[in-house]
Amino acid sequence: MTERFMVTQTMVTIASRTEEAEGVVTLRFDWNAPASPGQFIMVWIPGVDEVPMSLSYLGDRKGITVKNIGEATKALTSMLVGDRIMVRGPYGRGYHVPTGKILVVGGGTGMASLLPAMERISATDVHTAIGARNEKELLFEERSKKTSSNVRVSTDDGSKGFHGNAVQLAKEMMSETRYDMVLGCGPEKMLFFLHKLCLDMGIPCQMSLERYMKCGGGLCGSCAIDGKRVCREGPVFSGDELKEMKEFGKQRRDECGGRLKL
Ligand SMILES: Cc1cc2nc3c(=O)[nH]c(=O)nc-3n(C[C@H](O)[C@H](O)[C@H](O)COP(=O)(O)OP(=O)(O)OC[C@H]3O[C@@H](n4cnc5c(N)ncnc54)[C@H](O)[C@@H]3O)c2cc1C
Ligand code: FES
Questions:
Q1: Which residues contact 115 (CB under 8 A, 6 or more apart)?
Q2: CB-defined site of ligand 2, < 6 Å
Q3: Whether the predicted model's global pTM rises above the 0.70 cut
Q4: Ligand 1 pocket by C-beta < 6 Å: which residues?
Q5: Does the pLDDT at position 26 exceed 70?
Q6: Which of 39, 222, 253 to mutate to test the pocket of ligand 2 (most atoms within 8 A of CB)?
């Protein structure tokens, strides 16, 4: 099979900037590239770095939702309307948008990748569990309510909603409703335990992973997990694919390929 890799970069202008939570900013820009839920783009901030970001909004006015954790994300979250960035993509295999009763579980900035998928499903069929360390870090609760008939939140410190983590909340929700599919995105430890819960409950799932990315298009191998390229065969993997991955939830690689414990 011939693989195509688009390296064309497009300069876009920030059209809006929204502070979503502490240190988390959504940037919207006009770019009419076709994209599907769960795909990501490579964002180049000239003079700083190029980093992968999920698309939190599809359509002609696309969006990324960035958490400030380092140099590139600090530069992005500091951007103002009128500033410019370079984008390429979208890349990767996103969510296979399911039918039936769906439970969406998002932790950290994970909701950014999940919301475009939720918006393709009737709200009556979607229940959502959003996890955060505390109330100030909760993301996209109001936007989720527009596309989900039951939105519950969990905080590790109990400052809002369920006192505990998103997987514990998901377990409680699964005891009340029989779901046909679980979609998850967030810290990999969370996904590891969510995947285990889905296996125990016999519910199919899809989860979006993160690995260190350089090319974003399947060429360099820096994003490999158990022989699969997260940028190309992922970032969204099915529960069956995750079951075969020995590195899932256990280790990742740094920018030089060195193994890091998760
Ligand atoms: C498919 C995908 C989708 C993502 N979506 C989002 C999103 O929607 N919102 C968001 O805030 N973040 C997202 N990230 C994570 C984001 O790419 C990193 O937070 C960012 O690259 C950090 O760069 P930095 O210079 O700010 O921090 P640094 O200090 O350089 O790095 C901090 C940590 O970020 C990670 N990181 C750094 N560079 C990369 C890279 N090139 N590829 C992957 N991880 C890297 C590493 O774990 C590193 O330890 C996504 C990552 C992937 C792989
Ligand atoms: S980032 Fe280069 S192969 Fe995935």
A1: 56, 57, 140, 143, 144, 147
A2: 213-216, 218-223, 229, 231
A3: yes
A4: 40, 49, 51-54, 65-67, 69-73, 109, 112, 210-213, 235
A5: yes
A6: 222
Nearest CA to ligand 1 atom 50: 53
Q: Which domain holds residue 52?
A: 10-91
User: What whole-number distance in Å separates Cα of residue 198 and Cα of residue 233?
Assistant: 21
Is 140 within the bounds of a domain?
no
Q: What is the pLDDT of residues 140-150, one digit of tens each?
A: 999 999 999 99
Q: What is the pLDDT of residue 3?
A: 59
Q: What CATH number corresponds to the domain at position 77? A: 2.40.30.10
Q: Is residue 55 part of a domain?
A: yes
Q: Is residue 41 part of a domain?
A: yes
Helix 188-201, helix 166-176: angle, nearest 10 = 20
